[in-house]
């Protein structure tokens, strides 16, 4: 196949994931505030001619926000994505994507009608060839330019409200690093002022759904650029680990022989360059990360501040976290007590569920333990261990969902920190996803975890779940109705028996003797009741 043909296929077949669609990163689209690209399948915006979707106004949530962000109209991410676009493709049925050219997670086929379930596996359960293929895929993503997406290198105001677009190309892996940075960066207030208490992907209810979408999109991008539709992200089960067992040259990179902060020269990732790690520099310049290379991956596992994170998380801590019944509580931020989300994220003690921001537990503990690029929030996705770690965190989220089977209403609809209410769109994803759409079991999104699979039992439970949930919601009414029904039944039964006995006693005295055949036949249909 010619290079031209390969390039053409890459353009056509790229997935709908990420930040700014290339087709919308131009002056006309920004001035119209419209991102409704044509679907290549029929040439119409959003595939409207094929009934895949249509270009529609974005409906933003009007639910009140928490008090953590006391500003309005100063950050491009507020009411995402309305600063840039107020019309996007609304896809129908199982179609998805910025042009409705893809299938929703968990579906495949020409018309997106075929269910698909893929399984994420423990990285140590992969064969040598499977593991090497995973590492090769990572390298391919680091060296393949994204065909569909670009990143913003300036704010909307710096773009002169759209008349001066500021975007640049980026490789597939770094696209996701940049998205993680963009969602968690500080708000630029002008001059040298910034607001740090803001994060659209952490420290609030959306932490788990946001990273769930992030991994699904990352997984799909790898499937597309490799042509391997069966690819899934492996996970690292770090419970009770004595040290970083994936930190070897065979897996995610060993320690440099002379500089403990660097990776081994024999590692796949020794030559990787990081981006978006200099937040203070960006803040002082009132600028966004422009994806310029900023040096090698840093990692020195275990040589972290032991007073903050003495060790990697234990199985007992995970089990305690799973026992918590409340998904969210109180202020719904890093100060929340008895919150499953806050405890799993690591701002609450994994033995008491009481907020303690001086310590780092569970999810946060792993980041701090790595003592390098992983330990700084905005640039943490530079280290490829990030995806292994978050896949396992997502599996814990999945265990909680299966154990407690919460209704969608459990996810907060209002008063969460900015960007984290149930109906808020997640920053910075286009196509648009709401937080609440991913507060559901992973099988509904097309994937499972190898260590959680119990096919026969789970399928039966899945069948019963909606009925059990409905029964649970109306249990009080059912009990009350049963009690009242029992009383009414007892009363009626007593009255009926009394009437029947009375009727039987008088019938023989007043009933005439029936001798004619017609009367005898009619008697068969009589009833004393």
UniProtKB/TrEMBL annotation:
GO molecular function: identical protein binding; metal ion binding; tyrosinase activity
Compartment list: Melanosome membrane
Keyword rRNA-binding: no
GO terms classed as biological process: melanin biosynthetic process; pigmentation
GO cellular component, one term: melanosome membrane
Keywords: Copper, Glycoprotein, Melanin biosynthesis, Membrane, Metal-binding, Monooxygenase, Oxidoreductase, Signal, Transmembrane, Transmembrane helix
Record InterPro entries: Di-copper_centre_dom_sf, Tyrosinase/Hemocyanin, Tyrosinase_Cu-bd
Coiled coil: none
Required cofactor names: Cu(2+)
Source organism superkingdom: Eukaryota
Membrane topology: Single-pass type I membrane protein
Amino-acid biosynthesis in keyword set: no
EC number: 1.14.18.1
Annotated signal sequence range: 1-18
Pfam families hit by this protein: Tyrosinase
PROSITE patterns the UniProt entry points to: TYROSINASE_1, TYROSINASE_2
TM annotation in the entry: 474-500
Domain (Tyrosinase copper-binding) ranges: 202-219, 383-394
Similarity comment: Belongs to the tyrosinase family.
PANTHER family: TYROSINASE (PTHR11474:SF124), TYROSINASE FAMILY MEMBER (PTHR11474)
The protein's name: Tyrosinase
């Amino acid at each position: 196949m010619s290079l031209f043909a390969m390039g053409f296929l890459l353009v056509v077949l790229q997935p709908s994931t990420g930040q700014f669609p290339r087709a919308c990163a131009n002056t006309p689209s920004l001035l119209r505030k419209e991102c409704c690209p044509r679907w290549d399948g029929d040439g119409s915006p959003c595939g409207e001619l094929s009934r895949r979707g249509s270009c529609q106004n974005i409906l933003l949530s009007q639910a009140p926000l928490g008090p953590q962000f006391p500003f309005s109209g100063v950050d491009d991410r507020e009411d995402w994505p309305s600063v840039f676009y107020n019309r996007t493709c609304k896809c129908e049925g199982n179609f998805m994507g910025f042009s409705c050219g893809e299938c929703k997670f968990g579906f495949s086929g020409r018309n997106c009608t075929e269910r698909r379930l893929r399984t994420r596996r423990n990285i140590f359960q992969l064969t040598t060839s499977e593991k090497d293929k995973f590492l090769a895929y990572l390298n391919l993503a680091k060296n393949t330019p994204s065909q569909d997406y670009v990143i913003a290198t300036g704010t909307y105001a710096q773009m002169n409200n759209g008349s001066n677009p500021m975007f640049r190309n980026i490789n597939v892996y770094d696209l996701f690093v940049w998205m993680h940075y963009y969602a968690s960066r500080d708000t630029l207030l002008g001059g040298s002022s910034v607001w740090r208490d803001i994060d659209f992907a952490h420290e609030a209810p959306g932490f788990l759904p946001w990273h769930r979408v992030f991994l699904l999109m990352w997984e799909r991008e790898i499937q597309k650029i490799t042509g391997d539709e069966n690819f899934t992200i492996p996970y690292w089960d770090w419970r009770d680990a004595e040290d970083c067992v994936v930190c070897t040259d065979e897996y995610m990179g060993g320690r440099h022989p002379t500089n403990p902060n660097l990776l081994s020269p024999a590692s796949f990732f020794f030559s990787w360059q990081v981006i978006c790690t200099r937040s203070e520099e960006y803040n002082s310049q009132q600028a966004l990360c422009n994806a310029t290379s900023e040096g090698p991956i840093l990692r020195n596992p275990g040589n972290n501040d032991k007073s903050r994170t003495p060790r990697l998380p234990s199985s007992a801590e995970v089990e305690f976290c799973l026992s918590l019944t409340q998904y969210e509580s109180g202020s719904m931020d890093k100060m929340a007590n008895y919150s499953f989300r806050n405890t799993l994220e690591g701002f609450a003690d994994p033995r008491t569920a009481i907020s303690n921001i001086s310590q780092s537990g569970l999810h946060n503990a792993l980041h701090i333990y790595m003592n390098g690029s992983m330990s700084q929030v905005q640039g943490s996705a530079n280290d490829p261990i990030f995806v292994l770690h978050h896949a396992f965190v997502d599996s814990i989220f999945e265990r909680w969902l299966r154990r407690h089977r919460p209704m969608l209403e459990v996810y907060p609809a209002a008063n969460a920190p900015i960007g984290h209410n149930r109906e808020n769109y997640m920053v910075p994803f286009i196509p648009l996803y709401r937080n609440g759409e991913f507060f559901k079991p992973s099988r509904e999104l097309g994937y499972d975890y190898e260590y959680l699979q119990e096919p026969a039992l789970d399928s039966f439970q899945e069948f019963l779940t909606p009925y059990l949930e409905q029964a649970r919601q109306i249990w009080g009414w059912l009990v009350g109705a049963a009690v009242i029904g029992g009383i009414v039944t007892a009363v009626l039964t007593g009255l009926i028996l009394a009437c029947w006995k009375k009727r039987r006693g008088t019938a023989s005295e007043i009933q005439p003797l029936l001798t004619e055949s017609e009367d005898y036949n009619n008697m068969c249909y009589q009833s004393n009741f």
